[in-house]
Write a structure and sequence with these properties.
Shape: globular
Order of helices and strands: EEEEHE
Number of helices: 1
Helix content: 10-25%
Radius of gyration: 11 Å
Mean pLDDT: 87
């Protein structure tokens, strides 16, 4: 599953933490990447998530 809108190639990661993001009007993020779930994310985002210890390459 991917919430990202980009033409950048994706990488599959398994989240080891939780991250929320996206536009919000009421303080609730529009998307959440949940701990233990697998997502297809752009390569640059995967690099950041792994370096921040929020994900592992699947």
């Amino acid at each position: 599953m991917s919430y990202f809108t980009t033409d950048e190639p994706t990488v599959t990661v398994c989240m080891t933490g939780r991250m929320s993001y996206g536009p919000t009007n009421d303080g609730i993020p529009s998307h959440v990447l949940e701990d233990g779930e697998t997502y297809a994310v752009p390569q640059s985002e995967a690099k950041w998530l792994v370096s921040a210890d929020l994900a592992e390459l699947a």
